[in-house]
Amino acid sequence: MNNLNNQIINDPCAGPTLTVGCMFDRISLLPEPQYIYRGIVYPSLGVVFGPAKSGKTIFTENLLLSLAAGRETYLGDKIYTPSNRVLIVSLEEFYRNRTARNKKQIESFTERYQLDPSWSDEVYIVDDTFPRYIHSDKDWQLLEREIARIMPAVVVIDSLTRLTTESIEDSAVATRIMKKLREMTHKFGITVIVIHHSQKLENKPITIASLAGSRVVGQELDFMIGVNRTYNNIRYLKDVAYRYASDDTDQVLKFRINDSQIIESAGFCTEAELFASGNGGQMNDSDALVLQYLIEKTGNDESIIVLTADLYQYFIDSQILTRPTLHAALNRLVSTSAIEKVAKGEYRIRVAS
Fold it and tell me: Which of 27, 135, 195, 285 is the least buried, fewest Cβ under 10 Å from its Cβ?
């Protein structure tokens, strides 16, 4: 035992267990991490998720086209890629419709940014001979072979549910898929963005709880970006969770999709402003304050009850709102189905199942 202790003391950096100081020295030699976009570090694995027809695919396509075109920003945020080469693995759409959309997008990029037409040679997509599901070892080997051949910096897979013929709610299934994606990310040193469907939100805020599938899915991700669409057709982007960046902003980015299938910024607002009333963000400030408080207090978990006493303490005791103003806001939020009055003096967020 003494000999072992002496060996550890003499070589504290031997590993695989070592002193924290040794790890400090090791990472000091590494370059600073680079971010593809917002909190998407390179390399990493994560999802862009949201309900159907919210704009997930088009948002992600525009991001990859911006990287391939050598753009410095996307929707106002800096972007980075070690290589302009990207790969879009679309498993859901019929190839003809998808390709027609990509053609419009590329033509628009070329004209808008005065690019040499050859820039699109950095954009790779799959054709109609590629499997519609990737679930067998042969399918995964094909995907990895194409990544090894093309050597893209960023890969988009649309969608997660196409990576299995079983239920993504099954933890064993989810574990198997996430392990394969994680291994592929590390093996090729790439960023993998998987498009994933959320639960049906029915005009509700998007949160981690909205992510469909086993809890294993969320645990394995380095980033989660939400794309949502209100019932009055306002689309927005939300930083839901990042492993390697801050995600505590309450601002979301509204966007629209033009005729060329290009994403355009429509300004920032809070998510509460979009859902506290039915007029697309033109709302009473007190409604937004109360809804935002309830979202933060409950984490958008419908099982958590917030008492009127808590609301009084936060808003009235601190003189943020008066008692009549608070109750008027609660009544409006209940009437617009943003929240539910469970019983006298008890409220909760309404979350779609």
Answer: 27
pLDDT value for 311: 93
Task: Give the mean pLDDT per block of 10 residues along the chain (353 residues).
Answer: 55 85 88 93 96 93 98 96 97 90 97 97 96 94 98 96 90 93 97 89 78 84 94 87 88 92 91 65 68 77 85 87 89 81 87 45
pLDDT at 50 (0 to 100): 93
Q: How far apart are CA 142 and CA 174, in angstroms?
A: 21
pLDDT at 30: 84
* CATH number for domain 285-349, candidates 3.30.1300.10, 3.60.21.70, 1.10.8.80, 1.10.10.10: 1.10.10.10
Q: What pLDDT sits at residue 296?
A: 75
Please state, in angstroms and rounded to a whole number, the distance separating the CA atoms of residues 191 and 35: 10
pLDDT of residue 207: 85
- What's the token pair of residue 236? 């927005």
User: Using H for helix, E for strand and C for coil, what is the string for the chain?
Assistant: CHHHHHHHHHCCCCCCCCCHHHHHHHHHCCCCCEEEECCEEECCEEEEEECCCCCHHHHHHHHHHHHHCCCCEECCEEECCCCCCEEEEECCCCHHHHHHHHHHHHHHHHHHCCCCHHHHHHEEECCCCCCCCCCCHHHHHHHHHHHHHHCCCEEEEECHHHHCCCCCCCHHHHHHHHHHHHHHHHHHCCEEEEEEEECCCCCCCCCHHHECCCHHHHHCCCEEEEEEECCCCCEEEEEEEECCCCCCCCEEEEEEECCCCCEEEEEEEEHHHHHCCCCCCCCCHHHHHHHHHHHHHHCCCCCCCEEHHHHHHHHHCCCCCCHHHHHHHHHHHHHCCCEEEEECCEEEECCCC
Q: What is the pLDDT of residue 306?
A: 92
Residue 214 · residue 171 · CB < 8 Å: yes
Whole-model pTM: value is: 0.77
> What's residue 208's pLDDT?
86
What residue ranges of the chain are covered by domains with CATH 3.40.50.300?
34-271
